[in-house]
Amino acid sequence: MSVRDLVYGVYEKRLTARLDRSRIPRHVGVIMDGNRRWAKSVGEQIATGHQRGADKIHDLLGWCEEAGVEVVTLWLFSTDNFNRPADELADLLRIIEGSVRSLAETGRWRVRPLGALDLLPGDFARTLKEIGARTADNPGLVVNAAIGYGGRQEIADAVRSLLQEQAERGTSIEDLAQVIDVEHIAQHLYTRGLPDPDLLIRTSGEQRLSGFMLWQSAHSEFYFCEAFWPAFRKIDFLRALRDYSLRQRRYGA
Protein backbone atom coordinates (compact mmCIF):
# COMPACT_ATOMS: atom_id res chain seq x y z
CA MET A 1 0.00 0.00 0.00
CA SER A 2 1.35 3.41 -0.98
CA VAL A 3 1.74 6.39 1.34
CA ARG A 4 -1.02 8.10 -0.63
CA ASP A 5 -3.39 5.20 0.02
CA LEU A 6 -2.58 5.30 3.73
CA VAL A 7 -3.27 9.04 3.88
CA TYR A 8 -6.58 8.61 2.05
CA GLY A 9 -7.52 5.77 4.40
CA VAL A 10 -6.93 7.92 7.47
CA TYR A 11 -8.85 10.83 5.93
CA GLU A 12 -11.75 8.56 4.98
CA LYS A 13 -12.05 7.27 8.54
CA ARG A 14 -11.97 10.81 9.88
CA LEU A 15 -14.73 11.94 7.51
CA THR A 16 -16.83 8.92 8.42
CA ALA A 17 -16.41 9.50 12.16
CA ARG A 18 -17.42 13.15 11.86
CA LEU A 19 -20.59 12.60 9.82
CA ASP A 20 -23.77 13.81 11.48
CA ARG A 21 -25.86 10.65 11.23
CA SER A 22 -29.01 12.60 12.04
CA ARG A 23 -28.60 14.59 8.82
CA ILE A 24 -28.07 11.93 6.18
CA PRO A 25 -30.07 12.51 2.97
CA ARG A 26 -32.86 10.03 2.50
CA HIS A 27 -32.71 10.19 -1.31
CA VAL A 28 -29.54 10.88 -3.31
CA GLY A 29 -29.52 11.47 -7.07
CA VAL A 30 -26.30 11.15 -9.05
CA ILE A 31 -25.41 12.55 -12.47
CA MET A 32 -22.55 10.21 -13.31
CA ASP A 33 -20.69 12.47 -15.72
CA GLY A 34 -17.21 12.25 -17.21
CA ASN A 35 -16.76 8.68 -18.49
CA ARG A 36 -15.54 9.78 -21.91
CA ARG A 37 -13.25 12.48 -20.56
CA TRP A 38 -11.79 10.06 -18.01
CA ALA A 39 -11.04 7.58 -20.80
CA LYS A 40 -9.34 10.27 -22.86
CA SER A 41 -7.29 11.46 -19.86
CA VAL A 42 -5.81 7.98 -19.31
CA GLY A 43 -5.47 7.02 -22.97
CA GLU A 44 -8.27 4.42 -22.99
CA GLN A 45 -11.12 3.72 -25.40
CA ILE A 46 -14.47 5.41 -24.76
CA ALA A 47 -16.11 2.03 -24.11
CA THR A 48 -13.56 1.42 -21.36
CA GLY A 49 -14.60 4.69 -19.72
CA HIS A 50 -18.25 3.66 -19.80
CA GLN A 51 -17.40 0.25 -18.35
CA ARG A 52 -15.32 1.74 -15.55
CA GLY A 53 -18.19 4.08 -14.80
CA ALA A 54 -20.60 1.15 -14.63
CA ASP A 55 -18.24 -0.73 -12.32
CA LYS A 56 -18.23 2.23 -9.93
CA ILE A 57 -21.98 1.92 -9.30
CA HIS A 58 -21.65 -1.05 -6.92
CA ASP A 59 -19.14 0.94 -4.85
CA LEU A 60 -21.49 3.90 -4.63
CA LEU A 61 -24.45 1.81 -3.55
CA GLY A 62 -22.35 0.15 -0.86
CA TRP A 63 -21.33 3.57 0.45
CA CYS A 64 -24.98 4.67 0.43
CA GLU A 65 -25.99 1.59 2.42
CA GLU A 66 -23.28 2.26 4.99
CA ALA A 67 -24.41 5.86 5.39
CA GLY A 68 -28.11 5.03 5.75
CA VAL A 69 -29.38 6.45 2.44
CA GLU A 70 -32.70 4.85 1.44
CA VAL A 71 -33.16 5.80 -2.23
CA VAL A 72 -30.58 6.36 -4.96
CA THR A 73 -31.37 7.62 -8.45
CA LEU A 74 -28.64 7.01 -11.05
CA TRP A 75 -28.73 8.82 -14.38
CA LEU A 76 -27.38 6.10 -16.64
CA PHE A 77 -28.63 7.21 -20.06
CA SER A 78 -30.26 10.47 -21.10
CA THR A 79 -32.55 11.13 -24.04
CA ASP A 80 -29.71 13.23 -25.49
CA ASN A 81 -27.49 10.12 -25.51
CA PHE A 82 -29.48 8.79 -28.46
CA ASN A 83 -27.48 11.31 -30.55
CA ARG A 84 -24.17 9.57 -29.83
CA PRO A 85 -22.32 7.86 -32.72
CA ALA A 86 -23.87 4.46 -33.52
CA ASP A 87 -20.88 2.40 -32.40
CA GLU A 88 -20.58 4.24 -29.07
CA LEU A 89 -24.35 4.02 -28.53
CA ALA A 90 -24.31 0.25 -29.02
CA ASP A 91 -21.43 -0.15 -26.56
CA LEU A 92 -23.10 2.13 -24.03
CA LEU A 93 -26.45 0.31 -24.13
CA ARG A 94 -24.69 -3.06 -23.82
CA ILE A 95 -22.71 -1.87 -20.79
CA ILE A 96 -25.79 -0.35 -19.14
CA GLU A 97 -27.78 -3.55 -19.63
CA GLY A 98 -24.98 -5.57 -18.07
CA SER A 99 -24.74 -3.13 -15.18
CA VAL A 100 -28.47 -3.22 -14.41
CA ARG A 101 -28.45 -7.02 -14.61
CA SER A 102 -25.56 -7.14 -12.14
CA LEU A 103 -27.44 -4.89 -9.71
CA ALA A 104 -30.44 -7.20 -9.87
CA GLU A 105 -28.35 -10.35 -9.45
CA THR A 106 -27.09 -9.24 -6.05
CA GLY A 107 -30.58 -9.67 -4.61
CA ARG A 108 -29.85 -6.75 -2.31
CA TRP A 109 -31.69 -3.88 -3.98
CA ARG A 110 -35.01 -2.93 -5.54
CA VAL A 111 -33.99 -1.87 -9.02
CA ARG A 112 -36.55 0.45 -10.60
CA PRO A 113 -35.85 1.34 -14.24
CA LEU A 114 -37.40 4.71 -15.02
CA GLY A 115 -37.53 6.87 -18.10
CA ALA A 116 -39.07 6.74 -21.56
CA LEU A 117 -38.29 3.02 -21.83
CA ASP A 118 -40.33 2.64 -25.00
CA LEU A 119 -37.70 4.72 -26.82
CA LEU A 120 -35.13 1.98 -26.13
CA PRO A 121 -34.60 -1.12 -28.28
CA GLY A 122 -37.46 -3.54 -27.63
CA ASP A 123 -35.45 -6.38 -26.08
CA PHE A 124 -33.62 -3.97 -23.79
CA ALA A 125 -36.84 -2.29 -22.65
CA ARG A 126 -38.43 -5.68 -21.89
CA THR A 127 -35.37 -6.76 -19.92
CA LEU A 128 -35.51 -3.59 -17.82
CA LYS A 129 -39.20 -4.05 -17.06
CA GLU A 130 -38.62 -7.70 -16.09
CA ILE A 131 -35.80 -6.67 -13.74
CA GLY A 132 -38.05 -4.07 -12.13
CA ALA A 133 -40.75 -6.67 -11.51
CA ARG A 134 -38.30 -9.34 -10.30
CA THR A 135 -36.59 -7.10 -7.73
CA ALA A 136 -39.69 -5.25 -6.50
CA ASP A 137 -39.78 -7.15 -3.20
CA ASN A 138 -36.04 -7.12 -2.51
CA PRO A 139 -34.88 -5.55 0.76
CA GLY A 140 -32.46 -2.68 1.00
CA LEU A 141 -31.99 0.36 -1.16
CA VAL A 142 -34.39 1.50 -3.83
CA VAL A 143 -32.18 2.01 -6.87
CA ASN A 144 -33.77 4.08 -9.62
CA ALA A 145 -31.98 3.38 -12.90
CA ALA A 146 -32.80 6.41 -15.06
CA ILE A 147 -32.44 5.17 -18.65
CA GLY A 148 -33.80 7.02 -21.67
CA TYR A 149 -34.44 9.77 -19.15
CA GLY A 150 -34.93 13.50 -19.63
CA GLY A 151 -36.58 15.85 -17.17
CA ARG A 152 -38.69 17.62 -19.79
CA GLN A 153 -39.74 14.29 -21.27
CA GLU A 154 -40.77 13.09 -17.81
CA ILE A 155 -43.00 16.12 -17.20
CA ALA A 156 -44.55 15.80 -20.67
CA ASP A 157 -45.21 12.11 -20.06
CA ALA A 158 -46.72 12.89 -16.64
CA VAL A 159 -49.13 15.45 -18.10
CA ARG A 160 -50.04 13.07 -20.95
CA SER A 161 -50.71 10.26 -18.47
CA LEU A 162 -52.83 12.55 -16.31
CA LEU A 163 -54.91 13.68 -19.28
CA GLN A 164 -55.45 10.09 -20.44
CA GLU A 165 -56.50 9.02 -16.94
CA GLN A 166 -59.00 11.85 -16.63
CA ALA A 167 -60.34 11.27 -20.13
CA GLU A 168 -61.06 7.62 -19.24
CA ARG A 169 -63.04 8.90 -16.24
CA GLY A 170 -65.03 11.22 -18.47
CA THR A 171 -63.57 14.40 -17.01
CA SER A 172 -63.81 17.35 -19.38
CA ILE A 173 -60.83 19.62 -20.06
CA GLU A 174 -62.74 22.49 -18.50
CA ASP A 175 -63.36 20.55 -15.29
CA LEU A 176 -59.76 19.34 -15.14
CA ALA A 177 -58.46 22.89 -15.58
CA GLN A 178 -60.38 23.94 -12.47
CA VAL A 179 -58.82 21.35 -10.16
CA ILE A 180 -55.40 20.36 -11.54
CA ASP A 181 -52.49 21.15 -9.24
CA VAL A 182 -48.87 20.09 -8.69
CA GLU A 183 -49.88 16.98 -6.74
CA HIS A 184 -51.92 15.68 -9.67
CA ILE A 185 -48.85 15.90 -11.91
CA ALA A 186 -46.49 14.49 -9.24
CA GLN A 187 -48.65 11.36 -9.03
CA HIS A 188 -47.79 10.62 -12.68
CA LEU A 189 -44.03 11.19 -12.59
CA TYR A 190 -41.64 8.28 -13.10
CA THR A 191 -40.70 8.60 -9.40
CA ARG A 192 -44.26 8.59 -8.04
CA GLY A 193 -44.47 7.12 -4.58
CA LEU A 194 -40.88 8.04 -3.71
CA PRO A 195 -39.52 11.02 -1.78
CA ASP A 196 -37.94 13.84 -3.77
CA PRO A 197 -34.13 13.85 -3.76
CA ASP A 198 -32.53 15.63 -0.82
CA LEU A 199 -29.09 15.74 -2.43
CA LEU A 200 -28.06 15.75 -6.09
CA ILE A 201 -24.41 15.01 -6.91
CA ARG A 202 -22.81 15.72 -10.28
CA THR A 203 -19.29 14.65 -11.12
CA SER A 204 -16.79 15.96 -13.72
CA GLY A 205 -16.86 19.61 -12.65
CA GLU A 206 -19.93 20.60 -14.68
CA GLN A 207 -22.30 22.76 -12.65
CA ARG A 208 -25.71 22.26 -14.20
CA LEU A 209 -28.55 19.73 -14.00
CA SER A 210 -28.85 19.14 -17.76
CA GLY A 211 -32.50 18.21 -17.26
CA PHE A 212 -32.04 15.74 -14.40
CA MET A 213 -35.07 15.50 -12.10
CA LEU A 214 -36.26 18.99 -12.98
CA TRP A 215 -39.56 18.62 -11.13
CA GLN A 216 -38.28 16.72 -8.11
CA SER A 217 -35.23 18.93 -7.44
CA ALA A 218 -37.15 22.09 -6.51
CA HIS A 219 -35.82 21.89 -2.94
CA SER A 220 -32.79 19.63 -3.43
CA GLU A 221 -29.29 20.52 -2.36
CA PHE A 222 -26.66 20.34 -5.12
CA TYR A 223 -23.07 19.14 -4.83
CA PHE A 224 -20.67 19.44 -7.76
CA CYS A 225 -17.50 17.34 -7.71
CA GLU A 226 -14.46 17.84 -9.94
CA ALA A 227 -13.64 14.13 -10.27
CA PHE A 228 -14.71 12.28 -13.41
CA TRP A 229 -17.23 9.58 -12.53
CA PRO A 230 -14.89 6.55 -12.94
CA ALA A 231 -12.44 8.28 -10.55
CA PHE A 232 -15.10 9.15 -7.94
CA ARG A 233 -13.90 7.94 -4.52
CA LYS A 234 -15.52 7.21 -1.21
CA ILE A 235 -13.98 10.36 0.23
CA ASP A 236 -15.69 12.37 -2.53
CA PHE A 237 -19.00 10.83 -1.50
CA LEU A 238 -18.33 11.48 2.18
CA ARG A 239 -17.45 15.09 1.41
CA ALA A 240 -20.80 15.46 -0.34
CA LEU A 241 -22.59 14.10 2.73
CA ARG A 242 -20.58 16.38 5.02
CA ASP A 243 -21.40 19.40 2.87
CA TYR A 244 -25.09 18.46 2.86
CA SER A 245 -25.16 18.06 6.65
CA LEU A 246 -23.80 21.58 7.13
CA ARG A 247 -26.46 23.29 5.04
CA GLN A 248 -29.60 24.92 6.36
CA ARG A 249 -32.44 23.66 4.18
CA ARG A 250 -35.03 26.41 3.86
CA TYR A 251 -37.47 24.93 1.32
CA GLY A 252 -37.97 28.30 -0.32
CA ALA A 253 -38.42 30.20 2.94
From TrEMBL:
Mg(2+) binds at residues 33, 221. Substrate binds at residues 34-38, 50, 78-80, 82, 84, 202, 208-210. It is an enzyme of class 2 (transferase). Keywords: Magnesium, Metal-binding, Transferase. One of its GO terms (molecular function) is Z-farnesyl diphosphate synthase activity. The keyword Transcription regulation does not apply. The active site is at 33, 81 (proton acceptor). It comes from the Bacteria. InterPro entries: UPP_synth-like (IPR001441), UPP_synth-like_CS (IPR018520), UPP_synth-like_sf (IPR036424). PROSITE patterns: UPP_SYNTHASE (PS01066). One of its GO terms (biological process) is polyprenol biosynthetic process. Its EC number is 2.5.1.-. Pfam families: Prenyltransf (PF01255). GO terms for cellular component: plasma membrane. Binds 2 magnesium ions per subunit. Its cofactor is Mg(2+). Homodimer. Catalyzes the condensation of isopentenyl diphosphate (IPP) with allylic pyrophosphates generating different type of terpenoids. Belongs to the UPP synthase family. Z-FPP synthase subfamily. PANTHER family: DEHYDRODOLICHYL DIPHOSPHATE SYNTHASE COMPLEX SUBUNIT DHDDS, DEHYDRODOLICHYL DIPHOSPHATE SYNTHASE FAMILY MEMBER. This is Isoprenyl transferase. It comes from Actinocrinis puniceicyclus.
